[in-house]
Amino acid sequence: MADSRVLVIDDEKAICDFCAIALERIPNLIVTTEHRAKPALKLCESGKFDLVLTDLNMPGTSGVEVLKLVKETSPDTPVVVMTGYPSVDNSVECLRLGASDYVLKPLLIDDLLSTVTRILDDRRLVEENQLLRRQLERKSSQIQIYGKSEGMESVRNLIADLAETNVDVLIWGETGTGKELVARNIHNGSERAKKPFVPVDCSAIPAELFESEFFGHERGAFTGATERALGLMEYADGGTLFLDEIGELSLPQQAKLLRALQERKFRRVGSREEVSVDIRLLAATNRDLREEVVAKQFREDLYFRIHVGEIRLPPLRQRLGDVEMLLDHFLVLYGREMNRPDREPNDDAMTVLTSYSWPGNVRELINVVRRMLAQSKRKVLTLDDVPAEIREQASSNTEQGRKAGFLGEKARMMEQFEHDYMVQVLKTCNGDVSAVARMADISRQSVYRMLTRLSLDADDYRSD
Prior knowledge:
Layout (H helix, E strand, L loop, with lengths): L3 E6 L3 H11 L5 E6 L2 H10 L4 E5 L1 E2 L2 E2 H11 L5 E5 L4 H9 L4 E4 L4 H27 L14 H14 L5 E4 L6 H10 L8 E5 L8 H6 L16 H4 L4 E5 L6 H13 L1 E3 L6 E3 L3 E6 L3 H6 L5 H7 L2 E4 L10 H15 L6 E2 L1 H9 L5 H15 L4 E2 L6 H41 L4 H8 L3 H10 L11
Parallel strand pairs: 1-2, 1-3, 3-6, 6-7, 8-13, 8-14, 9-10, 10-13, 15-16
Antiparallel strand pairs: 4-5, 11-12
Helix pairs in contact: 2-3, 6-7, 13-15, 16-17, 17-18
């Protein structure tokens, strides 16, 4: 948990010392005290504090002056006023100027601790909500993973197994296969489920904002930094940080990220203090990071840092048997959302849709469902409602099949055959690549190339 910083201002040094000793009871709290007017005002201008606790009546300055200065320089910083001379006028004036609360002198430890704890908790909640609005615009509308194919059954089993651990996980898969959905399911099945799940699209973060977005920044750290801001790693404290398309990060960005992940510590931009966090990392990529490492485009040490657990998502073309189930699910889901309930395709439309190769995977299927629902008012969806490019591919496949005869049909079905064959042999050989090579009567190198091309991993088929 990151430390919170409190500034105590009182012209009586004994009161400052009392507050410092009392506030030590609050975990992760750094207390700064000042009993001199000018240094106190200078500290207020720094914007470094999460809460300012000030006396109301002081020589050389006043609590009202402190309050005004804090609200001018750091409007989101809460101020608590201490006073031994309470009055309705004073209370109303302080609250009107933005004070969060006031405490009465002589100070009671329990009242002081409860007030400071409550206000710091409220401030952290506000910061987290601000970051949530800034970063977490994408939400997954469906948590259940649909599909009866062997590939998806294997994925569900891996999710359940990895959710019980706290290891970092690398999720491989083509664009649109549902990598974020897998990550959310790992998080939801883990002990961190009640803590934040923070998804980050690495390809969408400008290079110049990388450190600020990941690690946060202090007020004045750069032009436009008018307030201290939490970073993504700090917001994910206690929960899960999901880095989507981690392969898009540049080498300098990878180096900065690696250090933070290794130590689970970092510095906000403009700060010398280290912040410690407890996060679980889930990373996803549509690239072959091993090839990126060989090409010096991805750091080998970062690859091994994130590649502890692993899940490989099969593309939709390797599980065409799941398409009908997915279509039924999304027609119901988006039918309700778009006020198009009870829509279903007829046999001709379903035949074309289930034979399409879906290069954009589940994301493309969702877009097609939404297009069909938006453009048709009929309860039964026909071929006319199927997008033209899908109809054209189906027609082209049929024509090619007629022209090419047996060889054309064989070529079209080869990838699915190879996938199903290798899955069966891997199961029989308990994931032993040498045994697979002997059974298939091909070289080990050929087995490895085929596994890579088919997005299969021999380790997934080894029994404990």
